[in-house]
């Protein structure tokens, strides 16, 4: 009996040691991203998901979800001070500059083949190419509405109550009479903006991932001429309309300094697809919404780079980080958990393989995480909205610069100075707060004094060489 007890005790010790080793083998990865702040049920969500992740790939995830208004400053602090993180969300406004700083780890073909074969199978080769900097890849692109379609999003209930039809209004000029009517009815700013401004006005101009929207090539310009974006006649006309709206009260008076987006807007502009009015924009506002497209559906390096996730150069477990990103994009349960929240509290699966939402409390931003095409369809959706997204991607008009990479190494200082100047002016210019015929020349003079023309010359030379001109 003593021998049996000794053997049992020894076996228990071995099993205990094995359990300890297994727990120690689980790697914790920190993922920094943007959204509406940390979810209220984050702890229970993380415990639920991490149990699954640990079993699948030996990973636990620690999230930092930064609010929209704090994102730019917080992200810049993290990247520029080497604050510890493993994965961080980014986009075309910051990607190339971050790579130039040496912030991110190169993701090689071999790393993808060994740790993320699902990503290679899922994401089109051209989208990987759109993320190359000097031929190397430093981010996983999010395969979603990777082309760009912009929509005027309306409170449909309000339109219907006032017998208004905005379905044929596709420009700022078109929607102005509708906005004026609703302003008279509601006595509020019906086209609210934040300090980021109406950046969608610049959608027809490709700024070749320079991080400076003020320099660009028009997406359909076969001559490939590099221009000062805000000096172009079509842009200036739209900016003048915004200024008129600001003076008339259609745009909120605090737009230039307002950090957070209103939950509700009579009319706003959003990137997406038509059914998003029913599945997302309307529910988020608490009304029935309608969406009508403005402009063409475009694809460029910048649109593909609209949602990226990069691995820190200081990440101690880059293979695990890639395995995790692979799982986010290929495992339906993991994808749904990030997109919808905690199973049992925020959502549950239905018997027919769809998903029912219990509430809209989840504050993470779905577009920042992974592909849309693995997100489970809601039981309330009569159609699969992701089919609309795929159709838009396939029909997108390519920018004349699709595939071009701008090497900014010779104009880094000039570019940094001009970006700082642009960011200082953009809140006032792109919200209509100031007269663009005054403020745009002021901004451009400051930029030219800081080396703007050198950026134009460097970009033009590289583009000409790329195009064989």
Report on this model:
With 469 residues, this protein is an alpha+beta fold. The chain has two domains: 2-143 and 304-384, 3-Layer(aba) Sandwich (D-Maltodextrin-Binding Protein, domain 2); 148-302 and 400-467, D-Maltodextrin-Binding Protein, domain 2, CATH 3.40.190.10. The chain has 18 helices and 16 strands. The protein has helices spanning 2-25, 42-57, 68-80, 95-101, 109-115, 117-122, 125-129, 156-161, 172-186, 233-248, 276-285, 301-304, 318-330, 332-340, 385-395, 412-429, 436-449, 452-467, and strands at residues 27-35, 59-67, 87-90, 132-133, 136-137, 140-141, 148-155, 205-206, 215-218, 227-228, 267-271, 289-299, 308-311, 347-349, 355-357, 397-398. It has a five-stranded mixed β-sheet with strand order 2-1-3-13-6. Strands 11-7-12-16 form a four-stranded mixed β-sheet. Helix 2 links the parallel strand 1 (27-35) and strand 2. The longest helix is centred in the first third of the chain and has 24 residues, at 2-25. It is globular.
Topology summary:
Blueprint: H1 2-25, E1 27-35, H2 42-57, E2 59-67, H3 68-80, E3 87-90, H4 95-101, H5 109-115, H6 117-122, H7 125-129, E4 132-133, E5 136-137, E6 140-141, E7 148-155, H8 156-161, H9 172-186, E8 205-206, E9 215-218, E10 227-228, H10 233-248, E11 267-271, H11 276-285, E12 289-299, H12 301-304, E13 308-311, H13 318-330, H14 332-340, E14 347-349, E15 355-357, H15 385-395, E16 397-398, H16 412-429, H17 436-449, H18 452-467
Parallel strand pairs: 1-2, 1-3, 12-16
Antiparallel strand pairs: 3-13, 4-5, 6-13, 7-11, 7-12, 8-9, 9-10, 14-15
């Amino acid at each position: 009996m003593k021998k049996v007890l000794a053997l049992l005790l020894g076996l228990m010790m071995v099993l205990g040691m094995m359990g300890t080793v297994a727990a120690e083998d689980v790697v914790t990865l920190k993922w920094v991203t943007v959204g509406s702040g940390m979810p209220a049920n984050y702890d229970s969500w993380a415990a639920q998901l991490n149990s699954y992740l640990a079993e699948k790939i030996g990973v636990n995830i620690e999230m930092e979800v930064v609010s929209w208004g704090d994102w730019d400053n917080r992200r810049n602090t993290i990247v520029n001070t080497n604050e510890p993180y493993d994965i961080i969300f980014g986009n075309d406004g910051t990607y190339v500059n971050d790579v130039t700083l040496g912030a991110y780890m190169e993701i090689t073909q071999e790393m993808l083949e060994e740790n993320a074969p699902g990503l290679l199978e899922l994401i089109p080769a051209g989208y990987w190419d759109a993320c190359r900097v000097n031929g190397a890849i430093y981010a996983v692109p999010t395969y979603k509405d990777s082309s760009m379609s912009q929509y005027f999003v309306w409170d449909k209930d309000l339109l219907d109550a006032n017998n208004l039809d905005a379905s044929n209004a596709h420009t700022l000029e078109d929607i102005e009479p509708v906005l004026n009517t609703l302003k008279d009815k509601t006595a509020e700013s019906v086209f609210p903006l934040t300090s980021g401004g109406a950046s969608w006005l610049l959608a027809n101009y490709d700024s070749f991932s320079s991080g400076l929207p003020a320099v660009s090539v028009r997406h359909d310009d076969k001559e490939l001429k590099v221009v000062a974006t805000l000096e172009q006649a079509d842009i200036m006309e739209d900016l003048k309309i915004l200024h008129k709206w600001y003076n008339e009260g259609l745009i909120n008076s605090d737009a230039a300094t307002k950090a957070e987006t209103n939950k509700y807007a009579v009319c706003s502009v959003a990137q997406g697809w038509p059914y998003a009015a029913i599945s997302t924009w309307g529910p988020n506002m608490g009304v029935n919404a309608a969406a009508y497209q403005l402009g063409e559906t475009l694809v460029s390096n910048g649109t593909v780079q609209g949602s990226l996730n990069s691995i820190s150069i200081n990440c101690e477990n880059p293979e695990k980080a890639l395995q995790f990103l692979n799982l986010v994009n290929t495992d339906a349960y993991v994808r749904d958990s990030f997109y919808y929240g905690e199973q049992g509290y925020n959502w549950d699966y239905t018997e027919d393989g769809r998903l029912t939402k219990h509430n809209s409390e989840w504050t993470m931003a779905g577009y920042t995480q992974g592909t849309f095409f693995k997100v489970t369809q809601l039981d309330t959706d009569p159609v699969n909205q992701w089919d609309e997204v795929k159709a838009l991607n396939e029909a997108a008009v390519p920018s004349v610069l699709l595939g071009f990479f701008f090497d900014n190494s010779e104009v880094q200082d000039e570019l940094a100075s001009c970006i700082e100047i642009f960011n200082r002016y953009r809140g006032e210019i792109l919200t209509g707060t100031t007269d663009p015929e005054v403020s745009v020349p002021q901004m451009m003079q400051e930029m030219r004094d800081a080396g703007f023309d050198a950026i134009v010359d460097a970009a033009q030379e590289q583009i000409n060489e790329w195009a064989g001109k």
